[in-house]
Design brief:
The protein is mainly α. It has one domain (4-144): Globins (Globin-like, Orthogonal Bundle). It has helices spanning 4-12, 14-35, 45-49, 52-67, 75-87, 95-110, 116-144. α6 (95-110) runs antiparallel to α7. The longest helix is centred in the last third of the chain and has 29 residues, at 116-144. The structure holds protoporphyrin IX containing FE. Protoporphyrin IX containing FE is lined by residues 39, 42-44, 47, 53, 56-57, 60, 80-81, 84-85, 88, 90, 94-95, 98, 129-130, 133.
């Protein structure tokens, strides 16, 4: 469970995520594909080019920021994303890559607004969300007998 301080800081970033979320996630993919080109093959690159995948990720991050203190309400979102992740063979060890690139993207886009407190809070919050996905995806891989 995340600390109350982290919840408060993450929630306080919701307005800026609403406004600049897609800019952040577009930058996140730019960094990830440059630094970890091997992940490209898992993605539909036309959904990158037309901006639909960065938009989906931005919506998910915003939903998480606004519901971080009410995780059960995110169940249907998590379920849909987890199934898509299993279809595209996402692995637990890839979560730190997305986390690192996401924090870098927040820094790049938000500049001074990405204070050390904001970055620390998002680091902790991302970890919690990553664990939720890893756990659910593990169950789906087991059900499908492909893990
Ligand atoms: C907490 C972290 C993450 C969040 C919030 C997230 C969110 C999302 C969302 C919203 C979608 C779109 C689902 C849909 O089409 O309905 C998606 C798809 C996808 N995600 Fe993630 N994701 C995360 C971590 C990861 C990681 C670690 C990887 C591994 C590289 C990854 C790879 C993918 C891929 C390959 C797709 C399918 C994209 C496509 O169809 O082109 N995601 N994710």
């Amino acid at each position: 469970m995340v600390s109350q301080q982290t919840i408060d800081i993450v929630k306080s970033t919701a307005p800026v995520l609403k406004k600049q979320g897609k800019e952040i996630t577009s930058r996140m993919y730019e960094i990830m594909f440059a630094n970890y080109p091997e992940v490209k093959s898992q993605f539909n690159m036309s959904a990158q080019a037309d901006g639909s995948q960065p938009a989906k990720l931005a919506t998910a991050v915003y939903s998480y920021a606004t519901h971080i203190d009410d995780l059960p309400s995110l169940k249907s979102m998590v379920e849909k994303i987890a199934h898509r992740h299993v279809q595209t063979h996402v692995q637990p060890e890839q979560y730190p890559i997305v986390g690192e690139c996401m924090l870098q993207a927040m820094q790049d886009v938000l500049g001074e607004d990405a204070t050390p407190e904001v970055i620390d809070a998002w680091k902790e919050a991302y970890q919690v969300l990553a664990e939720i996905f890893i756990h659910r995806e593990h169950e789906i891989y087991e059900e499908e007998g492909v893990s």
